[in-house]
Specification:
transferase, Deoxyhypusine_synthase, DHS-like_NAD/FAD-binding_dom
Length: 307
């Protein structure tokens, strides 16, 4: 089959552009189109539960509203998040913000109480407010529960957060469970440890497993949207080993496979571990999630709404 050249027109929408990628079918354009097509199939398949993993600085990087929209639209049924993305969601929920980096020297930023994430800045004042507000929430939850799983904790936090754009709040309100196996490796984890020093309050990581396994066993099919690599990707894949692996998945990552890391591994490699089923529908895209996934999701919505 020949390669069709990509055409760009002045009146073209994002779906038309990715249809052109699909017709070309090669290199990165073809991978993006394949990921879009798989995402459409996952969303439209009413027998499929869709898991989403959030690795890397996606919330400070501008993906907060996208994740919340997917929850509200019923396009995702379970989330596995890094502790950092949870923290940054709550920073904004408590009135803080993320700012564009203006090129200042990092030592100067340190003096001004500003932390840098690539080209994103976060002020220490916003984290001070975060620490105060999350402690108030912990106190409310600890008054009812002495031992709680991570997923249950995040559900309770979500019910107490008043922000229509918070993905934690939207997940709680729409009964989309959030799992965060690496929650301690974050500012929210640090505050949990500090709080536990003078409160009878224990977080059970193993407490998540019965509920998670029930969801996996109760799913006729499971699809996955893997944004970034690392722990969140592996937790999503590994949770489905008990049923022979994922039925469908897309991943977007900047990691490369040569070093042998899971983050850069193509999804096909997961078949050897039974983390993805033989015959499963998979697509791996190498690129920046904050660029590629909004394009894919916007195009998928256009496809779905035009059917």
């Amino acid at each position: 089959m020949k390669v069709n050249q990509i055409n760009v027109e002045s009146n073209m929408n994002v779906s038309d552009l990715i249809d052109n990628f699909d017709a070309s079918g090669v290199l990165g354009a073809g991978r993006v189109a394949r990921a879009r097509n798989i995402l459409v199939d996952m969303i439209q398949d009413k027998d499929m539960n869709v898991f989403m993993s959030l690795g890397g600085p996606l919330i400070p990087g501008g993906m907060r509203n996208v994740v919340s929209k997917m929850i509200k639209e019923g396009h995702v049924n379970l989330i596995v998040s890094s502790g950092a993305n949870l923290t940054h969601d709550l920073v904004e929920a408590f009135g803080g913000a993320h700012y564009r980096h203006e090129g200042k020297d990092d030592e100067e930023l340190n003096e001004e109480g500003i932390g840098r994430i690539a080209d994103i800045n976060v002020g220490s004042d916003d984290f001070t407010i975060f620490e105060t507000e999350i402690t108030k929430i912990f106190e409310k939850i600890a008054s009812k529960r002495k031992v709680i799983s991570i997923q249950e904790l995040l559900y309770e936090i979500g019910l107490l957060v008043e922000d229509e754009n918070s993905f934690i709040a939207n997940a709680a309100k729409n009964n989309v469970p959030i799992f965060a196996p690496g929650i301690i490796d974050s500012m929210i984890g640090l505050q949990l440890w500090i709080f536990s020093q003078d409160h009878d309050f224990t977080i059970s990581a193993a407490g998540d497993m019965p509920y998670l396994s029930d969801i996996v066993f109760g799913s006729e099919k499971v699809g996955a949207i893997l944004l970034g690599g690392g722990l969140t990707k592996h937790y999503t894949l590994a949770s489905n080993v008990i049923t022979g692996g994922l039925d469908s998945a897309i991943q977007i990552t900047m990691d490369r496979p040569e070093a042998g890391s899971l983050g850069g591994a193509p999804l096909e490699e997961a078949k050897s571990w039974a983390k993805a089923k033989c015959g499963s529908n998979l697509a791996s895209v190498v690129g920046d999630v904050t660029v590629i996934f909004p394009l894919i999701y916007a195009s998928a919505l256009d496809k779905i709404n035009s059917d």
